[in-house]
TrEMBL record:
InterPro entries: Glyco_trans_2-like, Glycosyltransferase_2, Nucleotide-diphossugar_trans. It comes from the Bacteria. The keyword Nucleotide-binding does not apply. One of its GO terms (cellular component) is plasma membrane. It comes from Comamonas denitrificans. Residues 29-190 form the Glycosyltransferase 2-like domain. PANTHER family: GLYCOSYLTRANSFERASE CSBB-RELATED, UNDECAPRENYL-PHOSPHATE 4-DEOXY-4-FORMAMIDO-L-ARABINOSE TRANSFERASE-RELATED. Pfam families: Glycos_transf_2 (PF00535). Keywords: Membrane, Transmembrane, Transmembrane helix. This is Glycosyltransferase family 2 protein. Coiled coil: none annotated. The chain crosses the membrane at residues 254-275, 287-312.
């Protein structure tokens, strides 16, 4: 099910791959965000280590515990102490959300390439050799594209489609639809992401914004091994709102256009009734029209103020300059050191 379809390559990947450049020997950092993954981690981390060991002996796995409320902490500490794997364990001080957990992970990686992968087995491990291959051929970022959303609800699919349409309509930086967080990043890209100062981080937008040579790799997400997805419609909605307010001003522009159109219509209508009165002396009836239009346009105004408010809220959040996450714990059993970077 994970075999790439040529159409996906054609649509998202530059036709001619970048010229092959000799990459330094791979030192890979894997970032695994974990929120209530106590059941999955004891199987997932060894499985990931085994898959990665096929590519290089020099690797580390960074587990980011995003304020889990189950036994994730105990399980991760156990893995760090007894698995003998090159692990790094970061515990955030509370649940900051997946975007922040990924940022925390990336900030602490030391390899010359970074893989971001979910800890619930949904991102197929057998994509890693292909990602590695594309990286070696010169691509700086290889991202998984969800090739089949078959298992998802209709509402989620419609919402996703709408979101990407709005996002990309008003933006010169195009976000590839259905690209997920399953990614292989060159050190350059990881450093670029680290350098972006915003606090509320919409990762999918940031990946697109930093640019670099990217390649898409279609995959069919597997079923969650255990536990439940923490992204319900409400949470997805607020993530979408974060994305929109951080990456496009299109919703603001829409209201300027609507305002201009309404003003124009009012002007024409005003002109028309003046003329009508002068020429035909028509009597000016119509309080229902008045009432209806007042209601309509106060509604329109409230909506536009609301949208304005979303943007101001975003600005308010950013100017406070609070860090996007806080670390409560950092257990380092990794063998990679920061001078390994280049
Ligand atoms: N996750 C996280 N913090 C959160 C929610 C999720 O670190 O607040 C992690 C979770 O442990 C998993 C990944 O992000 O490794 C994807 O989450 P999930 O499976 O719930 O989302 P879905 O796969 O449905 O998009
Ligand atoms: Mg999942």
């Amino acid at each position: 099910p994970t075999s790439p379809s040529p159409e996906f390559y054609a649509e998202y990947t530059p036709a001619a791959p970048p010229a092959a450049l000799p990459r330094p020997p791979l030192r890979l950092s894997c970032v695994v965000p974990a929120f209530n993954e106590a059941v999955n981690l004891p199987r997932f981390i060894p499985a990931l280590a085994e898959a990665v060991a096929q590519l290089t002996p020099h690797f580390e796995i960074v587990i980011v515990n995003d304020g889990s409320t189950d036994a994730t902490h105990t399980v991760a500490m156990e893995l760090v102490a007894h698995s003998g794997l090159p692990l790094r364990y970061l515990a955030l001080s509370r649940n900051f959300g997946k975007e922040a957990a990924l940022s925390a992970g990336i900030d602490h990686t030391r390899g010359n390439a970074v893989v971001l992968i979910d800890g619930d087995f949904q991102h197929p491990l057998d994509l890693l050799p292909e990602m590695h291959d594309l990286w070696q051929r010169g691509y700086d970022m290889v991202y998984g594209v969800i090739a089949d959303r078959g298992a998802e609800s209709g509402a989620k699919r419609v919402g996703t489609h709408l979101f990407y349409r709005i996002m990309n309509a008003g933006n010169s930086v195009k976000m590839p639809p259905n690209a997920g967080d399953y990614r292989w990043l060159d050190r350059k890209v990881a450093n670029a992401l680290k350098a972006l100062p915003e606090r509320h981080r919409f990762m999918k937008g940031l990946y697109a914004w930093v640019g670099f040579k990217t390649a898409a790799l279609p995959f069919v997400p597997l079923d969650r091994a255990a536990g439940a997805s923490s992204f319900n419609l409400r949470r997805l909605g607020s993530l979408a709102l974060l994305g929109l307010t951080s990456f496009t001003t299109l919703p603001l522009r829409v209201w300027s256009v609507i305002g201009a159109l309404v003003a124009l219509a009012a002007l024409l209508y005003g002109g028309w009734i003046t003329l009508e009165t002068l020429l035909f002396g028509a009597d000016l009836a119509g309080w229902p029209t008045l009432a209806a239009s007042i209601m309509l346009f106060s509604g329109v105004q409230l909506m536009s103020i609301g949208i304005l408010g979303e943007y101001i809220g975003r600005i308010y959040d950013e100017v406070k300059q609070r860090p996007s996450y806080l670390l409560a714990r950092d257990e380092d059993h990794s063998s990679l050191r920061s001078n390994d970077n280049v």
